[in-house]
Write a structure and sequence with these properties.
Elements lengths: L4 E7 L3 H4 L6 E7 L3 H10 L1 H4 L6 E4 L9 H6 L5 E3 L7 H9 L3 E2 L5 H11 L6 E4 L4 E3 L6 E6 L2 E18 L13 E11 L2 E10 L5 E8 H5 L2 E3 L6 E24 L5 E2 L1 E2 L2 E4 L5 E7 L7 E5 L11 H5 L5 E6 L12 H18 L6 E6 L1 H13 L3 E5 L6 H9 L8 H11 L4 H16 L5 E7 L8 H11 L4 E6 L7 H20 L3
Parallel strand pairs: 1-2, 1-3, 3-4, 4-5, 19-20, 19-21, 21-22, 22-23, 23-24
Antiparallel strand pairs: 6-14, 7-9, 8-9, 9-14, 10-13, 10-14, 11-12, 11-14, 15-16, 17-18, 18-20
Helix pairs in contact: 10-13
Pfam family, one: Asp2
Protein name: Accessory Sec system protein Asp2
InterPro entries: AB_hydrolase_fold, Asp2
Length: 513
């Protein structure tokens, strides 16, 4: 059964009486005249207030809507839909702006109903197919090499016509959903005059008969491919074709439930990418429009989507989530100048939307996310940093990988390789030096620092000492809390202390309860 999508329509005519609704939509209609009053009454009754939880709110007749105070009170950012061609009062316009409402064309009701049914589900889901899942065609005569656990290079003269190069063998990991669409995004680069083609085949799982054959151009592959829904008893195969002469560098194949034009992973989610296919996703919630803006850089995450939503939402401040989708679980938010500029510009854009300055900005993260928080915190001259289990250098991770056991974050070597590919830096020593030179040059000592660290750290066991020594050398205060255990120990205690530092910042420096 598909997930039930609860939709509230506020307008003049009830669409459920005029149109055939998709089977998975639960429709609630309030007229423009009565909507605010009915919502206010339900909010006063705790038992009935649960009836006001919706996946989407559709305002079909804004030009005759007068009272919307309580409509806006129950609405969440990015979930309100309205027709921008309709004239609205300044009050409604401001409310829609603060909720980051999305526009639709109400003259096309069936398109809107389709989108509500397909894209406004509750959960987020995605994962990666790495190069271990790739099978090169048996008759392929080119040169194939692996530069890391997440990078395959294929060099050949592929000919003047498209020919099959590879497919993905582990079809059990390909997202197949009977009701939702799926987005597909390949990390790749090409050298020479190579042109790619991506083919998706849908087959009957019992007979093997091909029921659908879709061919996508390289341009479509660059812009993200959408496929599905896939019917019952079907399987999907992916194939990559190529023509021309040169080298193809293949990384992870990203799969996630599609939100259409309404977001990435979740409603309102955004993508920041460079030409090499390195992707960082972001989500913004303006909260109560009162400072500070709290930005959270997610940690290493093999599953797709955003980390830390509930934790940051509970702060009840404007918030922004960032997640690095590269490799097996993230690329430490480092990349070429194009990608790093997009991260900085995205945060500045949210500050401008709120009317805040960088003195009203806190950057934070856990584990891998601390690297991004420190790096961009220095560049943005943020007011404060809140860190848990900081990682600032690759040299100690690689050293500990050799000395303390091969299970200690081997993918750090892939991250170094990724940064090398996107910059002119060579080796972890140069990458580390650039990091420390950058934060010193940008004057990070003027940014307040609070951090939770592990006393038996086995990833970057120099981070706490280096940060503390640097701040103290500048006569700056450091707030810290040490916990017993190694990097992956004591997660609950680390989160509690992380949240405690945040609460301290909010109450002491921003006078928030």
């Amino acid at each position: 059964m598909p997930e039930i999508i609860r939709c509230l329509q506020v307008g003049e005519e009830d669409w459920s009486e005029k149109y055939d609704l998709p089977a998975n939509i639960e429709w609630v209609f309030f007229s423009n005249d009565e909507a605010d009053r009915m919502i206010a009454e339900k909010l006063q009754d705790k038992k009935r207030s649960v009836e006001l939880k919706f996946h989407a709110i559709l305002l079909t007749d804004l030009n005759t809507l007068v009272d919307a105070k309580y409509i806006f009170k129950i609405a969440k950012p990015h979930q309100v839909l309205y027709d921008s061609s309709q004239e609205v009062s300044p009050f409604l316009k401001e409310g829609l702006h603060r909720l980051l409402a999305q526009t639709v064309d109400v003259s096309q009701p069936m398109d809107i109903l389709h989108d509500l049914s397909t894209y406004f589900f509750k959960s987020q889901y995605g994962h990666r197919l790495v190069t271990e899942s790739v099978v090169v065609q048996p008759k392929f005569l080119g040169n194939v090499s692996h530069r890391s656990s997440c990078e395959m290079r294929i060099k050949a003269d592929f000919g003047e016509q498209f020919q099959p190069v590879l497919n993905y063998r582990d079809t059990t990991k390909i997202i197949i959903d009977e009701y939702r669409k799926t987005n597909l995004f390949l990390e790749y680069t090409c050298e020479g005059n190579v042109e790619l083609q991506f083919v998706i085949e849908t087959l009957n799982m019992y007979s093997g008969e091909i029921t659908k054959h879709e061919v996508f151009s390289q341009t479509e592959l660059d812009n993200m491919i959408e496929y599905g829904p896939i019917g019952a008893h079907q399987v999907v195969n992916f194939h990559l074709f190529a023509k021309g002469k040169g080298t193809i560098c293949i990384g992870s194949l990203q799969l996630r439930y599609s939100r259409g034009r309404y977001g990435e992973f979740t409603l309102g989610g955004e993508r920041l990418t460079n030409q090499r296919g390195h992707e960082i996703i972001s989500f913004f919630d303006p909260g109560d429009f009162q400072p500070p803006l709290c930005v959270y850089f997610g940690g290493w995450r093999s599953a797709g989507g955003f980390e830390g939503y509930r934790m940051m939402k509970n702060l009840k401040t404007p918030m922004m989530l960032l997640e690095d989708s590269a490799l097996l679980g993230g690329g430490f938010y480092r990349g070429d100048s194009e990608l790093e500029k997009k991260v900085i510009d995205s945060i500045k854009e949210k500050l401008a939307f709120l009317g805040f300055s960088t003195d009203q900005l806190i950057l934070s993260g856990m584990s891998m996310g601390t690297h991004g928080a420190i790096y961009y915190g220095a560049k943005l001259h943020a007011y404060g940093l809140v860190l848990s289990k900081p990682i600032i250098a690759f040299e100690p991770i690689i050293r500990n990988y050799k000395l303390k056991g091969v299970g200690i974050f081997p993918t750090a070597l892939d991250v170094v390789r990724l940064i090398e590919q996107q910059t002119e830096m060579k080796g972890y020593q140069e990458i580390d030096k650039q990091f420390f030179d950058s934060i010193a040059e940008d004057g990070i000592e003027h940014t307040k620092l609070a951090m939770v660290y592990m006393k038996n750290e086995d990833y970057d066991d120099t981070a706490y000492e280096r940060l503390t020594r640097y701040y103290l050398s500048k006569n700056q205060l450091v707030l810290s809390k040490g916990l017993p255990g190694r990097h992956n120990d004591g997660l609950d205690a680390a989160i509690l202390n992380f949240q405690a530092f945040y609460q301290l910042y909010l109450t002491k420096y921003f006078q928030r309860n």
